[in-house]
Write a structure and sequence with these properties.
alpha/beta; TIM Barrel; homodimer; two-stranded antiparallel sheet; globular
Chain lengths: 308, 308
């Protein structure tokens, strides 16, 4: 799957992943009203609305970006109905030929991590393996160490999927734990060594492993450092755009061939209509708002091209 | 809620939480066959089976234990149907007067953590706060630092619920990150300081905060050390029983008044019928298997009484 992801990035000439992290207030009021009229102002109504919103964005960007990254928390907030919308969003994006990175940040001890690994590894029921979640990649949390990650690595190997392990996250307080110095080395570099060891047997044709790392765009110096430390580790890079990361800051996250990472933008793409004067009347315009997302994704492509 | 939990522990004289972590192979074959006949050997069938299994256990132990801890991974493995069984398990346990600790180990950056906080904080829909998940406490992961935890603390404060932050987990490879030494102090003690600061404004009538810590039973020395470091932090203690922790090892997790922690047992209680000769014929006996769970919970109570 890592080779498929790299192939899709090359084909589209765009290392952008669109974060599908909807909130009610970023959805045009016309769409909102329509969904609430049909389904009620309920969790079900929000779920249907998110799905409509996501499908419009996916349709608008599927030919110009390689991947989407739905953030499950935004759906989990709306309970079962919300998670239903998450699952359907993943399925829809895959139908449209996109690679799907499920941003689920799961992590637990051995047998429990094995259960979570169903996200990429499927679930055995009645002797058959059923793919109930369908993500191609998921994000995972390393705080519990190797026995919490091994089941995800095993599932990735068996099903040709992948994971991105949190190494250096984009938020400000990531420093509290991740930057602590252990004999002069920050914790995130020690986690990076673990990521390297977890992924060493899953390196694909492009030289990158199915075990990747999350490295925030807000930390350009650490990006350079980690790129050198982890020549076989693909990076998922959050924090571009709304969180302050810029294309020019990201040069060091790429390798000498201009691959090596995929950069996420969520709000900057999916809520682009809010800040785009061309779309000032969008609340009345059905799903036309998604054209602003396309425009933003193309602008991001240009911005990243300058960095590569 | 921390005062309610402590009250329930005192009332029942039992600091045991029953881990509701079902797997197919620990459920008596008679029950399994019945569920699959009715609902099919499908995710839905497994979900209904888990719910029947959990309800039988809850009915059998509700008067002798203060709390249950469903592990969401075991349900998430079965997709939407599985999560439906999780939600219904939480609701059923609360109906029966039990405190519910949702073992969900969530954690993300600020706005995303806020979405996950719906588990204890509810979800605003149409101007009303709706409680879609209903857990009293949840477990959370500290790897992202304060801005990833603050939304959970806020929700706990507003809704009088609580969280348990992973500090020192019960699994063997917890040492890889959690025991790294930073100027001579292990990472888990630095996380413990953070837990203390996150919880300092939420200390209840019994002297314990709504922000608790997860400390594994498999680390008795660290338990003593953390008990001294965190006088206002209640501990959720996994790793008893199947993972090797014993009552005698846990003395140091309690305070001088014999409170301060709640000890989890999952397989040791819910799958007790498998190893109990009295229940050799249980596959034919409907939900009688749960009497073995009651017996095991009472045995654990005695074992812990010796420690307190």
């Amino acid at each position: 799957m890592i080779d498929q992801l790299i192939g899709a990035i090359r084909e589209k000439g765009n290392p952008t992943v669109v974060g599908l992290d909807p909130t009610l207030n970023m959805i045009p009021s016309g769409l909102r009203e329509q969904a609430f009229e049909t389904y009620g102002e309920t969790a079900r109504g929000v779920a249907e609305l998110f799905l409509t919103f996501n499908r419009a964005i996916i349709d608008a960007v599927a030919d110009i970006v390689p991947a989407v990254k739905p953030q499950i928390a935004m759906y989990e907030r709306y309970g079962l109905d919300g998670i239903d919308a998450y699952v359907k969003t993943v399925a829809y994006a895959k139908e449209k030929g996109l690679v799907v990175i499920g941003d689920i940040k799961r992590g637990d001890i051995a047998s429990t991590a094995e259960a979570y690994a169903a996200h990429i590894g499927g679930t055995v029921i009645g002797g058959d393996s059923v793919d109930l979640w369908k993500e191609d990649f998921i994000t995972v949390n390393p705080y519990l160490g190797t026995d919490g990650i091994a089941p995800f690595v095993k599932a990735a190997a068996e099903k040709k999927r992948g994971i991105f392990v949190l190494v250096k996250t984009s938020n400000r307080s990531s420093a509290e734990l991740q930057d602590l110095l252990v004999e002069g080395r920050p914790v995130y570099r020690i986690v990076a060594d673990l990521v390297n060891s977890w992924g060493k047997d899953l390196i694909g044709a492009n030289g990158y492993s199915a075990v990747g790392a999350v490295v925030g765009a807000t930390h350009p110096a650490q990006g350079i450092e980690l790129r050198a430390q982890l020549p076989h580790t693909f990076f998922l890079v959050p924090g571009y755009g709304a969180q302050g990361g810029k294309g020019a800051d990201l040069k060091g996250f790429f390798d000498k061939d201009g691959i090596g990472c995929i950069v996420n933008s969520s709000r900057g793409i999916i809520a682009a209509w809010e800040k785009d004067v061309e779309f000032a009347n969008v609340p009345k315009l059905g799903t036309d708002f998604a054209l602003a997302s396309r425009k933003a994704a193309l602008a991001m492509k240009s911005d990243l091209e300058a960095a590569v």
